[in-house]
């Protein structure tokens, strides 16, 4: 599958961004925070060492979104610090939170049309709130607020309201139910220009099916809607990622941030379009190119855009390989019939294209690819980003299911453990990674997971991962 290469690496910040002060000085109307007050929240083991997250507090009350994250090596040396903290405050907390719950319920009722007596509120929680910490424009002043969680009668009816202390003003709110918000549009064979604007679901095309909406008469619309949901479920369950929050797009069309896809597109000279792609904002599909694993593949390009940002040279093929890996994981865990039995490791089975890659046997006649670095079919110059990704696919098959290959015997770890190892790889590669970097990341990811006991991963599991790395020659520099 292809994608427009709009790659954005993970945001970084220098140590200079680390926390400004926290003790309030000056007048209550506009107080500058003066002295540091950061509370350590947690330290998380990572393949490279650890990350230490700290929370900003003013007068013992946390600043919402005011956090710093220190990236540390195995010796505990700080390599970089990320995050933002509030620099000023305005106002003060009243003696009580009276009225905050009523204001929150009133706002939910107004926005949703639900009756006030059908809503209930949890106890208000005090936070300083500075909208600029979330990306809003402005001077950056934290004000005293209460966060109130409001529940309706249905499971999905759950919102957090941010009420300005001492008033009935709701500054912002969000849903606490982490379901996918899905918008799917039908191009109905219209030829698109190839620009991002030309395929936008919600602007270039009307939304055919939105979250919670009725089924469409177009099979591709319903299939993509379902597959978006299954991909979201996978990322939430296995790696605790809100896929919509990470890669969703808001086109100001009234549906908010959503996973978006446009189906049945045509391009000049090709109708139906025999491919699918992630364009840096959303997905687009030719007619019938809508399987669980293909959809998961393209969505994972969006995930990679926000993690390692792989781009160019060998990294392009690695990007394709990781999308194959997680696309196939999504299909298998969703019990999609196109990802079971003999189709377990065939990518695209059931689509209008038919199976396009064999992850178990990349050198098969489907679309011949190398299955080891510097092996038959390997092309170091990488003229086609889909060629060398067969090495990543073979490594995934070996780590997950196990086999004997290239004089190495690998006992498969099973899917649950394999997902965690590959997720570590996804988050530790750099934008210009090589295939040897993939081998190193596989080993270090497994070692860190074994040290932490994540998913029951053991040292012997890491021996199997190392065997898979050797079998696919991911421990070699490409010739």
Question: What's the gist of this structure?
Answer:
The protein has 479 residues and is α+β, with helices and mostly antiparallel strands. It is built from ten helices and 24 strands.
Give a quick set of tags describing it.
alpha+beta; nine-stranded mixed sheet; 23% strand; disordered N terminus
Structure description:
The chain has 479 residues and is of the alpha+beta class. It has helices at residues 100-112, 196-199, 219-239, 243-247, 292-305, 313-333, 389-401, 415-428, 435-452, 459-471, and strands spanning 2-3, 24-25, 31-33, 38-46, 49-58, 61-72, 78-84, 88-89, 120-121, 125-129, 143-151, 158-164, 170-175, 182-186, 191-192, 207-210, 259-263, 266-267, 276-278, 283-285, 346-347, 357-358, 402-405, 408-411. Strands 4, 5, 6, 7, 9, 10, 11, 12 and 13 form a nine-stranded mixed sheet that branches. Helix 5 packs across helix 6 (313-333) and helix 7 runs antiparallel to helix 10. This is Neutral metalloproteinase. InterPro entries: Peptidase_M4, Peptidase_M4/M1_CTD_sf, Peptidase_M4_C_domain, Peptidase_M4_domain, Zinc_Metalloprotease_M4.
């Amino acid at each position: 599958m292809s994608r427009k290469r709009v790659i954005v690496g993970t945001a970084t910040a220098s140590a200079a961004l680390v926390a400004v002060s926290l003790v309030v000085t000056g007048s209550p109307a506009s107080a500058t925070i003066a002295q540091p007050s950061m509370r350590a929240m947690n330290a998380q083991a990572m393949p490279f060492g650890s990350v230490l997250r700290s929370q900003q507090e003013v007068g013992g009350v946390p600043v919402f979104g005011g956090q710093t994250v220190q990236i540390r090596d195995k010796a505990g040396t700080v390599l970089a610090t990320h995050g933002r903290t509030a620099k000023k405050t305005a106002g003060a907390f009243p003696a009580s939170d009276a009225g905050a719950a009523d204001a929150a319920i009133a706002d939910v009722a107004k926005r949703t049309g639900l009756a006030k007596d059908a809503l209930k509120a949890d106890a208000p929680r005090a936070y300083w709130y500075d909208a600029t910490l979330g990306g809003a424009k402005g001077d950056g002043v934290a004000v005293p607020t209460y966060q109130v969680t409001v529940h309706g009668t249905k499971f999905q009816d759950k919102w957090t309201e941010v009420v300005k202390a001492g008033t009935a003003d709701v500054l912002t709110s969000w849903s606490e139910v982490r379901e996918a918000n899905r918008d799917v549009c039908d191009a109905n064979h219209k030829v698109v220009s190839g620009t991002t604007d030309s395929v936008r679901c919600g602007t270039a095309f009307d939304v055919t099916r939105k979250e919670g909406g009725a089924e469409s008469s177009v099979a591709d619309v319903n299939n993509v809607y379902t597959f978006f949901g299954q991909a979201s479920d996978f990322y939430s369950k296995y790696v605790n990622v809100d896929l919509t929050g990470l890669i969703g797009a808001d086109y100001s069309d009234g549906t908010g941030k959503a996973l978006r896809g446009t189906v049945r597109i045509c391009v000049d000279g090709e109708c139906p379009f025999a491919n699918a792609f992630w364009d840096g904002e959303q997905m687009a599909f030719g007619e019938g190119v809508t399987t669980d694993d293909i959809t998961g593949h393209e969505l994972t390009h969006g995930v990679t855009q926000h993690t390692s940002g792989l781009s160019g040279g060998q990294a392009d093929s690695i990007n394709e390989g990781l999308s194959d890996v997680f696309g196939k994981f999504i299909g298998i865990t969703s019990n999609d019939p196109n990802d079971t039995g003999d189709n377990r490791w065939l990518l695209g089975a059931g689509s209008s294209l038919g199976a396009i890659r064999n992850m178990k046997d990349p050198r098969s006649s489907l679309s011949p690819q190398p299955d080891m670095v510097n092996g038959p079919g390997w092309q170091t110059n990488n003229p086609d980003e889909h060629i060398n990704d067969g090495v990543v696919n073979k490594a995934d098959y070996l780590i997950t299911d196990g086999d004997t290959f290239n004089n190495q015997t690998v006992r498969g770890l099973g899917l649950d453990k394999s997902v965690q190892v590959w997720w570590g790889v996804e988050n530790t590669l750099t934008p210009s990674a090589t295939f040897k970097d993939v081998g190193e990341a596989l080993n270090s990811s497994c070692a860190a997971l074994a040290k932490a006991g994540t998913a029951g991963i053991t040292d012997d599991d890491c021996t199997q991962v190392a065997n898979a790395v050797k079998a696919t020659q991911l421990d070699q520099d490409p010739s």
